[in-house]
Amino acid sequence: MNRGMLGESDLNASTTLDTVPLVNIITNQQFVDWNTLKNLLKLHIVHILDSHQQSITSNELPDLEVQKDHLLESIDEKTEIPFTIQRICELILYPNEHYKSIWKWIRGMEKVLLVTIPLTEELDGKSNAV
After folding, report:
1. What are 88's strand-pairing partners?
2. Helix (H, G, I), strand (E, B), or coil: what is residue 82?
3. How far apart are CA 29 and CA 45, in angstroms?
4. What H or E segment, with its residue span, contains residue 110?
5. What is the pLDDT of residues 83-120, one digit of tens each?
6. What does the DSSP 8-state code read for residue 80?
7. Residues near 105 by Cβ (< 8 Å), separated by ≥ 6?
8. Is the distance from CB of 31 to CB of 25 less than 8 angstroms?
9. Cα(first)–Cα(last) distance of the chain, in Å?
10. CA neighbor of 52 nearest in space, from 10, 115, 112, 98
11. Which of 42, 79, 97, 117 has a CA positioned 20 to 30 A from the CA of residue 34?
12. What is the pTM of this model?
């Protein structure tokens, strides 16, 4: 993965918001309290979407706000760390890595947030699968 190709808005997100817990999840699968992580994820999502407001037309702006609210609600509804947490963190840390438009990034986030299996159930299932 070529993470050196980040845009200016991505660099701003990396320097102004705490990314250490997200990087730890990707590299070491170390987790923090879910409520703390949930708030951090929401801050990053808001920052990413707000930084793209200049690149969309004024007609699309209301749609972007609706999508932002939808993503934030999807995170709020989760009571436990979702099984897809690593992918969620990757999309937040590197939003332009796989998606060239904000709309495709939003769809990618929606897909990983649709997963309802919590990480704890997945880990329990692996320990019992031997």
Report:
1. none
2. strand
3. 21
4. helix 102-113
5. 898 899 889 988 888 898 999 999 999 999 999 898 87
6. S
7. 48, 91, 95, 96, 99
8. yes
9. 33
10. 10
11. 97
12. 0.73
